TrEMBL record:
GO terms for biological process: potassium ion import across plasma membrane; regulation of monoatomic ion transmembrane transport. One of its GO terms (cellular component) is monoatomic ion channel complex. It comes from Methylocystis bryophila. Residues 60-131 form the Potassium channel domain. It is found in: Membrane. It is a multi-pass membrane protein. This is Inward rectifier potassium channel. Keywords: Ion channel, Ion transport, Membrane, Potassium, Potassium transport, Transmembrane, Transmembrane helix, Transport, Voltage-gated channel. Its main location: membrane.
Length: 301
């Protein structure tokens, strides 16, 4: 049986480093995914490399024709790889300055193939670039730490986030999950997912800030947890957000991961808002990450 080539991928979920081993090689069968997920520098570097390789290939075909006594490109210097390369660039880009042009049947055949490849490449590259540029994304600022504090007489897990664009996101919805490792009665280890109930999981018009609140009552998977439980837990807390961005008229999504060790117990967020004498309200987003211990003489962190 032939051995299949495999790969290893390293990625992170919050602070957790995960290494996936022996994944099937799927680069050529999943080019769209790689085009969408690569960074912009890598994306353009790959385009440049492909462009150079294609033109080098066609230049070598012209050189091959010339080596057998053919004159594939008129006005090209004999044996000049540079002339053939730049003629290929002009052909693939459908520029055609006119100084160099196909001269023989062989030259016309190679130029025809190059033109077809060039037109197809332009369509593919333009589509991939537009898809990357037009991909809708929410611009959310999440507080650095979740906190646990009392609210309306109940103990709450709170996570604050803000809309960086300060525009209207309608029909906004949020989910809060906790993911933790547990053992079954058969001593098997399983990664289990629990959706945490929120006091409010939707927002008709999200434009500024939103604080998610999960009551730590008897129904909560975190009921009875204290500071030490969070400090020694390997659980992850995940926020999933979605909504309709009125500026782009598109559905936007975002996601944030926290480690349970990042939860600040018996802390509360510092208020972002203040008012002046004229009644104007100011929101200081620089305070988004600031918290303070609960107590009369507590100072912000």
């Amino acid at each position: 049986m032939a051995a299949h080539r495999t790969r290893t991928k390293v990625f992170r979920l919050g602070e957790r480093k995960i290494i996936a081993e022996r994944l099937p090689q799927s680069f050529w069968t999943d080019l769209h995914h790689y085009a969408m997920t690569a960074s912009w520098p890598r994306f353009f570097a790959a385009l440049a490399a492909g462009f150079i390789c294609l033109n080098t290939l066609f230049a070598l075909l012209y050189v091959l024709g010339a080596a057998f006594g053919d004159e594939p490109v008129a006005n090209a210097r004999p044996g000049s790889f540079a002339d053939y390369f730049f003629f290929s660039v002009e052909t693939l880009a459908t520029v055609g300055y006119g100084d160099l042009h196909p001269h023989s049947l062989y030259g016309h055949l190679v130029a025809t193939i190059a033109t077809f490849v060039g037109v197809s490449s332009v369509a593919i590259v333009a589509g991939a670039t537009f898809a990357r540029f037009a991909r809708p994304r929410a611009r959310l600022l999440f507080a650095q730490n979740p906190v646990i504090a009392p609210h309306d007489g109940a103990r709450m897990l709170m996570i604050r986030f803000a809309n960086e664009r300060v525009n209207a996101i309608t029909e906004a919805a949020a989910q809060l999950w906790i993911i933790r490792q547990e053992r079954t009665a058969e001593s098997a280890s399983f990664r289990k997912f629990y959706r945490l109930r929120l006091t409010r999981d939707d927002n008709p018009v999200f434009a500024l800030t939103w604080t998610l609140m999960h009551p730590l009552d008897e129904e909560s998977p975190l009921h009875g947890w204290e500071k030490e439980d969070f400090a020694h837990s390997d659980a992850d807390i995940v926020v999933i957000f979605s909504g309709h961005d009125e500026s782009s008229n598109q559905l936007v999504r975002d996601r944030q991961h926290y480690s349970a060790r990042e939860v600040l117990v018996d802390h509360q967020y510092v208020d972002l808002s203040r008012s002046d004498a004229q009644g104007a309200t100011f929101l200081d987003f620089g305070q988004l990450n600031k918290t303070r211990p609960i107590g009369p003489n507590a100072s912000p962190l």
